[in-house]
Every structure is written in C-alpha cells, then in structure tokens.
Specification:
alpha/beta, three-stranded antiparallel β-sheet
C-alpha cells in the first residue's frame, strides 16, 4: 500500500484504519479529498526524488529514460500522450521535453496546482479516470505511475476508458504497488518482512472519520486479477516489469526501503497494447 501517515482529518480527529468495502463513488470522493489535503506535504516530502521533469515509475527509482516502456525517447516526438494520476505532472514534463504532446490528468485539483507552480505548456485536466473527458481515439499512448489504479473500486472502468481514448495500436503502461505487498505489514524495517495477512483478501484498506465516512481508500488486486482486468478490458498484456531495488537508492518511501526491496518486489508495471 502507498498510503503514508498523515495528520488529522477535516474534523480534527485521527482517522480510523480498517478493512471494509468501499464502492466506486465513496472511493473517488475520499481519495479526491485526501490528495487535495495532502498534496502539499507529498510534494515537499517526495519532490526532490521525483524531480520536476523526471519520469520515475516507482519508489525503486526506475526511470523511463532507461526502461523505455513507452518506446524509445526519439519515437515519442509528435505523439499524443495521456498521463493519468499525474500529480504535479513530472512525467508529462519529461514527455514534453522529448517532443511529445502530453495531457496531464488528475483527480486532485491541488496536485495540479503544483504542476502550475512548476510550470509547463501542456494541458492540465482535473477529472476522474473512470470517466475521461476526451473523444474516442484521441491519444497514441497513455501512462500512469502509481496514479488512479490503486485507488479505484473497479479498475476495469479506468482500463476501458483508456482503451476508448487510445488509437488502434496504442500502448498503456501503468505501475501499482506490487500485489504481494498486501500480505505484509506496510513497514520499511524488519517488521515488514513477515506475512501478516492473506494475499487473497481483496477487502479494501480504508481510513474513515468518526462518522464512518471514508477519507482514504486503497484497493487490492492480485496479479491474476490485474491480468484478467487487462484482458477483459480489451488490452493485450505484452510485459510485466518488477523493478529490482538498485544499489544507489538508499532512500525510504513509506513502506519501501532498501531492506525490503532486496527481498520482495514493491512495484509492478503492466505494459498493455490496444489491438
């Protein structure tokens, strides 16, 4: 899970962490509010690692410059690219530098304000990934680095929308918390190395206020679930990348750390194509 400790909810009390069902509407409402409230702290804490114009796929630090999961940098020139869950749009800024024509979309208005602060000449769109405000076949490529997919109750809604706005032959690459991490405590130290829950328990992780209203929701899908979601949404899975933790990266990010990264995967990157 990617959630990190935060301060009180809007009512001034600490949220209660639990596991319970949360539907599409509740998840969207809760996560829009969470990211709006926590965008400033997130950018302060992680902005240096992410940079202003880097394309990093996850806490391991795998960079699109070396990964080329969207294709060779020289092939991105002139391509229309949709970034989903863009945050401060660091990835879109890198894409623009390669000559691509990115559009950065995020559920959180406050996250996109940070993109305005950094700067860039590409469009910013505040919208839900499950209802993309674009015409059919508008983009050549789509990408999402830990954006949207971990937070939606039905990822197939997002995948079908992405497929709709991609042109034939288009590629969608997205990264999420590696599903195996849900079986372990979300801790960077030794306590995060022992299985504590069932990998097969899909019950969402929810933080809720004193009235039982969700203020943060994260959803779990197994590897098999992700593959089936991709296939039933009309995509072909062409690669699944599990980045190894590099020796140069000594930083901790929530539950990610060199200790855990050397032993168990923390990120899964799915490379999909629309036929």
């Amino acid at each position: 899970m990617i959630q990190e400790p935060t301060g009180p909810d809007p009512e001034g009390t600490e949220p209660e962490a639990t596991r319970r069902d949360a539907d599409v509407a509740e998840s969207s409402r809760a996560n829009r509010g969470w990211w709006d409230r926590n965008a400033d702290e997130y950018q302060v804490e992680h902005g240096t690692f992410l940079g202003d114009d880097r394309f990093v796929w996850g806490p391991e630090g795998l960079d699109e410059v070396e990964a080329e999961l969207l294709g060779a940098p020289e092939d991105l020139k002139g391509r229309d690219v949709l970034e989903i869950g863009a945050g401060a749009a660091q990835c879109s800024r890198w894409l623009a530098a390669q000559g691509a024509r990115p559009v950065a979309l995020d559920l959180s208005h406050r996250q996109l304000q940070h993109s305005l602060r950094i700067g860039g000449s590409f469009p910013l769109v505040c919208a839900d990934a499950g209802a993309l405000p674009f015409a059919d076949a508008s983009f050549d490529l789509a990408c999402s680095a830990y954006g949207a997919l971990p937070f939606v109750a039905d990822p197939r809604l997002v995948l079908r929308e992405v497929r709709r706005v991609l042109r034939p032959g288009g590629r969608f690459v997205f990264s999420v918390t590696h599903p195996i991490r849900w079986a372990f405590p979300d801790e960077p130290g030794p306590e995060g190395l022992s299985v504590a829950a069932s990998y097969f328990d899909r019950t969402p992780y929810v933080e809720q206020d004193e009235n039982g209203h969700a203020v943060y929701v994260e959803h779990h899908r197994t590897i098999g679930d992700r593959v089936r979601d991709i296939a039933t949404s009309g995509f072909r899975l062409v690669d699944l990348v599990e980045p190894e933790w590099p020796a140069w990266n000594t930083a901790e990010w929530g539950g990610w750390s060199p200790l855990r990264g050397a032993l168990i995967p923390g990120t899964a990157i799915f490379v999909c194509e629309r036929d």
